[in-house]
Design goal:
Elements (H helix, E strand, L loop, with lengths): L2 H20 L3 H16 L7 H49 L2
């Protein structure tokens, strides 16, 4: 696979990762990122200006996805904590209601 085809394939993976992240399919996004990784690692240092521009856009998309993942992680953590509090409250109610 030549460099331009490789970069185009990386772009396709990146857009698929972006779409998966946008709908909260983080497992799919991770699987796609794993599949994309060898292609990224195979890129050489010498690239055309057009390829470098596309690589910069891929990096920008990756940065946005990373930020979205951090927000999702915080939100899920908050939901988990709220669920744990609710579970403790129900348990406490059940203990008190038995008396």
């Amino acid at each position: 696979m030549d460099a331009q085809n490789r970069i185009e394939r990386i772009w396709q993976f990146t857009k698929a990762i972006e779409q998966a992240a946008a709908v909260g399919e983080w497992q799919q996004a991770a699987q796609l990122a794993d599949a994309r990784s060898p292609l990224l690692m195979s890129l050489g240092a010498q690239q055309t200006p057009a390829a470098l521009a596309q690589i910069r856009e891929i990096q920008a998309i990756d940065g946005r996805i990373s930020q979205a993942a951090q927000v999702a992680q915080r939100d899920l953590g908050a939901e988990y904590q709220a669920s744990m509090r609710a579970t403790r409250n129900v348990s406490q109610y059940q203990r008190v209601a038995q008396f």
